[in-house]
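Throughout this chapter, every protein is written as a compact record of paired, labelled lines. An example of such a record is reproduced below:
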Amino acid sequence: MNIPKAPFSPATTRQTYSLGFWLMCWSSFLFFLSFNLLLPELPEHLTRLGGGEYKGYIIALFTLTAAFSRPFSGKLADTVGRIPVMVFGSLVCFVCGFFYPWALTVTSFLTLRLLHGFSTGFKPTGTAAFIADIVPMERRGEAMGLLGVTGALGMAFGPAFGSWLAQHFSLNTMFYCSSGMALLSLVVQGTLTETLPRAQRRRFSWSLLKLSWHEVLEPRVLAPALVTLLCLFPFGAVLTVIPDQSRLLGLAGPTKGLFYVCYTGASLSVRLLSGRASDIHGRIPVLRVSAAILALGLGLLVWSPSVPWFLVGAVVFGIGTGLNSPTLYAWTIDLSHPEYRGRAVATMYIALEIGIGLGALLAGWIFANQPARLPYVHGVSLLCVLLAIAYLLTLTATGPVAAADSAPAPEPSPEEVV
């Protein structure tokens, strides 16, 4: 008689994370490094191709495909497996990086950017579902914080590394290195064991790409999805207007990126030091605090009369983000059913893409290259965060696992147990 055993005992939850967890973090770092190292050089490259007026499409097309592919990646993660979904995302990154040197027209370049977006539509969805399978509920906040740190490090180092490669070697070297980082991420995934239960796995068929409406969004996680949308709106707005605000305050040359240095440093520090906050105090209480800190940071950016206050706003905003992001991931997984974890994660990512996209679009429309309008941009972002706080105050403050999986979690492979 096959007696099911508990995947995680109180003793194992106090031990260090498994090799599988750290390999997945390493794979995530390489993946985010891969496509972020391209970003600083792509606008100038597109200008040389004769498409300078299409610079806005570099991010827009990438994000569009990523958002479109989320429901498909969520369904496939719940049916075919977590690892195949991650492999497909990394494979797209590998192939696109390899073909950038051959995209010598504006049309071919923009088409490649559109296809490249499938990578982030698939890889992060599979990664989050995989981590949720192998980490106990009591450590989800901490685990998502650590995973976020590795992804953020890839995003932080990528642009500097890409510019260094382009300046000291060539643009094509940068493209091939991007492809190589994706290939390394793919190799790491090949060492992992699938965590989707065998009874749930199906062989891939084209019929799996047919989606009904209930397969697009997971209703159990609409609450964290709404909070994600409202709290990520400011991030899209900040990315859009901070370069101009920095310039207007006199930050230029080596100092023009100081906002991002302060923001990233604060965010990473909080993720490392406070990853377990929501595991101990509950998801909703921590989200209330993090949203209040985000609101304070945006208030400082609305006012910021000088560079010091501007950078203080960056630090406060980074602290709020560092508390907010891993908690939203953990809350999403808490509420999801084990059989639909991929769909739940995809729903949260759809909300994230919509929030960032709307923030960027509205910020550009409100700002319209008029410095006097900058406070209004941050004011609208502040309003979104205040709405998130108001919504969170209507919810019952539960512990991190009070609303967790109603069905037993899938049993992981022995080498993946935390």
